Amino acid sequence: MTKYPLVSVITPSYNQADYIEDTINSVLNQTYKHIEYIIIDGNSKDGTNEILRKYSSRVNKILIEDDKGQSDALKKGFSMAKGEILCWLCSDDMFYDDTIEKIVNVFVSNKKLDIVYGDTEYLYPNGQKTLKKKIRYSYPAMLYAYNFFAQPSTFFTSKIYEKSGGIDTSLHYVMDYDLFLKFGPKVKTFLIKESLSIYRLHKNSKTVSLKNKFIDEWLTVRARLLNRKLTIKDTFLSYFYTLIVVLKFLFERGELKIKYDNKKYNSYVFLLEKFKNKYKWLKV
Question: Phi/psi of residue 167, each to 5°?
Answer without folding.
Answer: -70, 135
